[in-house]
Amino acid sequence: MSIIESFRHHDLDALRVGRLNMGVNSSFVVYRLNGTLIDCGPSNQWKHVKSFVQSGPLRQLLLTHHHEDHSGNAGAIQKLTEVQPLAPPATVEILRQRFSVPGIRRFVWGEPYWADAAPLPEELHIGKEPLKALFCPGHSVDMTCYLLPERGWLFSADLYIANYLKMLHNGEHLPTLLYSIRDILEQDFDTILCPHRGVVEHGHLRLREKYEFLLNLASNAQDLRRQGYSPKEVTRKLLGKEPMLAIITGFEFSKQRLIRASLKVNLGDH
Fold first, then answer.
1. DSSP-assigned letter for residue 123
2. What average pLDDT does the segment 190-198 reach?
3. pTM, full prediction
4. Burial classification of residue 25, based on how many CB atoms lie within 10 Å of its CB (0-12 exposed, 13-18 middle, 19 or more buried)
5. Contact indicator for 149, 188 with CB cutoff of 8 Å
């Protein structure tokens, strides 16, 4: 089922594109504020994103990380508008080298329009408002969130997505993700602008709920493992059976990956 939805949040324009597959929301929200685009959606939604890009001024394109749903249209936008994408240094290098998109992700998002991105400058602004780039790896090695301090708005990349994480991808590193969430929670913000969930009010509280859920999950998993249960048994007890999506992805994205990662979390650090 295709999803095309335009909406506004104050002076922020947004476009949700994508489709629903296998019970997982694979839609993506592209945000534009005062001529700045934050991420640019998957390439298989280019015709809709193109119309959105052309519907208003574009002076700056910021990428949060290299994943194809976030950077997929960057090359097409660069060709269309001559606006060079700006990205964290690690993202610039990954895009320069290009990366292989696994089959299931290529089906959901498409193959990226490759971009020649430039590193983020030391000082960032959206219009006249200062913008902070906050490095927050874990979901990917290069992920960065963007904070508008004067508004308390956090463009959260894939740091949030949902309060309760139930599956993990093989490219994610849970201990690092927890450190990143902890660091972001030290910032002052109230609204999360999530590229999958949309506008999340009381965002600081929601992100803390996710952090505490993951710590509790790690604690419970480690307790059960000490009692002699196998990782598979721990997964069943805490998260239930694997969904069809795990099987389709060859368990690259699965509940057991989350449990195995939870067993490696150093709870004393949190």
1. S
2. 96
3. 0.94
4. middle
5. yes
